[in-house]
Amino acid sequence: SKRSSFDKITERNKMSVWIVLFIAYSIIIALGIGII
């Protein structure tokens, strides 16, 4: 059962990483276009 809980944690971490990357990418795009 340790393995399955670890897999759940890694999946959650992957999602949070993708969200952070998406936010950072959006900020970079906005800066490049000159909105900010």
TrEMBL record:
Keyword terms of this UniProt record: Membrane, Transmembrane, Transmembrane helix
Residue stretches spanning the membrane: 15-35
Protein's UniProt name: Uncharacterized protein
Organism the protein comes from: marine sediment metagenome
Transmembrane helix keyword on record: yes
